[in-house]
Specification:
By secondary structure, the chain is α/β, with parallel strands linked by helices. It has helices at about 35-55, 75-90, 110-115, 130-140, 145-155, 175-185, 205-210, 210-215, 220-235, 260-265, 295-305, 320-330, 340-345, 350-355, 355-365, 380, 385-390, 395-400; strands at about 5-10, 15, 25, 60-70, 90-100, 120-130, 160-170, 190-195, 240, 245-250, 270, 275-280, 290, 315, 335-340, 365-370, 375. It contains 18 helices and 17 strands. The protein has a nine-stranded mixed sheet, with helices on both faces. The structure holds iron/sulfur cluster (SF4). The site of iron/sulfur cluster has 11 residues, from loops.
Length: about 400
């Protein structure tokens, strides 16, 4: 039986670094990556795909995700080369969900048409805000009009599944302004929305911007934005399927992001490119392996060409560690946690070790216990880190927050 895993490709180039960004990406300037950097990246991707195909065979993939960075900055020709390379080495399912993250100012009609022709069938558009002043504060290289235009171009190119990424809790933003942004986003009729609270990551320019920090809404205001925003999206027919993610409920169609759902369920993922993280269960070995590619284009290229792809930052994950991670990820999703499955894999019965806490969580409306399934309510999601800590999982919070 062939190995099954979702595939991930990290595209490391952006036009400029956003003020809040802590992801690995390189500021490549307005016209995107220089031909030399792009070809080094593409050559190394080919070599990494060869290495992993040798190791795992023609992995059967139900989904593929191009993340970044800004994958839409790769351009049609490079995307075609990567798609051909992946299809040649791996068994991408005929109905695979293929997502590409795009920024409004690099999602040109011709790129979008090419992406569709190459089989990309889901677009995740990095809109972040529909307020030009906020976009400027965030250091985004597009404005609200470009975001709307990119959405229209994506529809015209044939994308029937478009997600918008938005951020709330921006400097100077009120709950009313956030709800207004959501209404404007809904007017575009997207299939999916990802709504993240702004986090100020150490080392980013935002962390050094005292004026912006002073204008950030406090915790209570952020909580109000989360709760009222979630209610508004539920009323508009969206399923709140993970703390930050909402999919339109559509008859006969599951519009949740397959790649993310797969990661949250702890399924295997095979990643390519700098900063990509992989988790693979090797047949015949109990522990799954996880490795993180270097967060440097140069180091990653060197590693791949020395035949060491997948060797850096490698760790074996014991079944117990996987069960603990699984608990944390499950509690953040609407699917919730199967207490039976957790007891089987971790050898730890939460209904015995934390019986009082489970009763208390239900009593105060933070969780529901439906049979053997524990689910956080909307209010519970808001304090999910505290709940997960109370269940005894401090390390997981530190690793995943
Ligand atoms: S576009 Fe995304 S990855 Fe690039 S700098 Fe901005 S937030 Fe970071």
């Amino acid at each position: 039986m062939s190995t099954r895993a979702t595939l991930y490709v990290h595209a490391p180039f952006c036009r400029a670094k956003c003020q809040y960004c802590a992801f690995y990406s390189l500021a490549a300037g307005p016209s995107g990556p220089q031909p030399h950097s792009l070809s080094r990246y593409l050559d190394a991707l080919d070599a990494e795909m060869d290495r992993q195909a040798e190791r795992y065979g023609p992995v059967s993939a139900p989904s593929l995700f191009f993340g970044g960075g800004t994958p839409s900055l790769l351009g049609g020709e490079a995307l075609a080369r990567v798609m051909v390379g992946l299809r040649r080495r791996f068994d991408l399912a005929p109905d695979a969900e293929i997502t590409l993250e795009a920024n409004p100012d690099s999602a040109s009609p011709s790129f979008l048409r090419t992406a569709r022709e190459l089989g990309v069938n889901r677009l995740s558009l990095g809109v972040q805000s529909l307020d030009d002043a906020a976009l400027k504060t965030l250091g985004r290289t597009h404005d609200a009009a470009q975001a709307r235009l990119a959405f229209a171009h994506a529809r015209a190119a044939g994308f029937a599944n478009i997600g918008l990424d938005l951020i709330f809790g921006l400097p100077g933003q009120s709950a009313a302004a956030w709800l207004d942004t959501l209404r404007q986003a809904l007017a575009l009729e997207p299939e999916h929305l990802s709504c993240y609270g702004l986090t100020v990551e150490p080392g980013t320019p935002l962390a050094e911007n005292a004026d912006a920090l002073a204008a950030c809404p406090d915790e209570d205001s952020q909580a109000e934005m989360f709760l009222r925003g979630s209610e508004l999206l539920a009323a508009a027919g969206f399923e709140h399927y993970e703390i930050s993610n909402f999919a339109r409920v559509s008859a006969g169609q599951d519009l949740r992001c397959r790649h993310n759902v797969s990661c949250w369920r702890g399924e295997d993922v095979l990643g390519f490119g700098p900063a990509a993280v992989s988790t693979m269960t090797e047949s015949g070995f109990a522990p799954a392996l996880r490795w993180a590619n270097p967060q440097s284009l140069e180091e990653w290229v060197e590693l791949v060409h020395s035949g060491q792809s997948g060797q850096a930052g490698r760790e074996a994950l014991s079944p117990e560690v996987r069960a603990r991670e699984g608990l944390m990820l499950a509690l953040r999703s609407a699917e919730g946690l199967s207490l039976d499955a957790y007891a089987r894999s971790a050898g730890r019965e939460l209904r015995e070790t934390h019986a009082g806490l489970l009763v208390q969580l239900s009593a105060v409306g933070l969780a529901t216990l439906d049979g053997e399934r524990l689910r956080l309510t909307r209010a519970g999601m808001l304090v999910s880190n505290s709940v997960i800590r109370a269940l005894g999982f401090e390390d997981e919070i530190n690793n995943y927050s």
